[in-house]
Amino acid sequence: MNLGGDLVQGLVFLLLSVVLFTIATYVKDFLTPYKIQEQLGKNNLAVSVSMTGYLLAVVIVILGAFLGPAKNFIDDIGKFIGYAVLGILLLNISRFINDKFLLRKFCNVKELIDDQNVGAGAVEFGAYIASGLVVAGSIHGEGGGVHTALAFFVLSQVALIVFTFLYDLITPFDVHDEIEKGNVAAGVAFGGTLAALGVILLKGTVGDFIGWRYNLINFALSAGSSLIFLPLVRMLLDKILLPNLDLNHAISRDRNVAVGCLEMTVAVSFAVILYFSIDFDLGF
């Protein structure tokens, strides 16, 4: 083991990560119709929550690029930078998808800037985390490339959109209406569930790319299981963990942020348990 060489390589990747993280911040600031620093200076918590999700997603993507298979130092640097830049671009594309499809009934920018809607920021937080996890999984491992990363990114966005419609169906209130009305509890609960969905989708993308049939089946199994599992977890929270509270009333009528945070925590917690306990590789 060459301790000196390993230390130098580690410092190089650390420096590159700082540079990429900084670039990602400026890219988002450039692509948004508002100035992030100006909004933060105005104590805009909605923008802060959304930006926090974006930056955490950037770190997740950088880790996905960094933890890929090692070959030689120069090649590793090139792939690390290339995949990290691709991931950052995809995260910024996901913001437009969030605006047009996930929160399709209103304008995200208006909610974040004019109304300083923390609930809308929380949904963007969760969607960024979900997208970051899937992108990190698709660039981690051998056998794939830019085309596979793009394919699974598109599939993950489709899964997020489908789940948004499903979440609307299983809740007696309109999620979009509640968030537009400034219901932070609804935004936190929904955003947290999107992040939980990302954890499960990560299971279907992480690892080596064996072939389209093999990897698409694994992704489909993870996506399908999430559409069944997450509503069941919500039912568990409502009927068993909070037997003396009506979950839907607490979120929609009472705007109980504490209950919204609990829904987020339970969804993410059980998604992590599912990630480590179930193997979607059925040998196809």
What does this molecule look like?
By secondary structure, the chain is mostly helical. It has twelve helices and no strands. The protein has one domain (about 5-275). About 45% of the residues are buried. The chain has helices at about 5-30, 35-40, 45-65, 75-100, 110-115, 120-140, 145-170, 175-180, 185-205, 210-240, 245-250, 255-275. It is about 80% helix and about 0% strand.
**Helix/strand order, N-terminal first:** HHHHHHHHHHHH
User: How many DSSP H or I helices?
Assistant: 12
Number of domains: 1
Work out the helicity level. over 70%
End-to-end Cα distance, whole Å, is 39 Å
Please report which band the strand proportion falls in: under 5%, 5-15%, 15-25%, 25-35%, 35-45% or over 45%.
Answer: under 5%
The radius of gyration is: 19 Å
Largest sheet: none
How many E-type strands? 0
The unreliable regions are none
How confident overall, as mean pLDDT? 89
Indicate the structural class: mainly alpha
Shape: globular
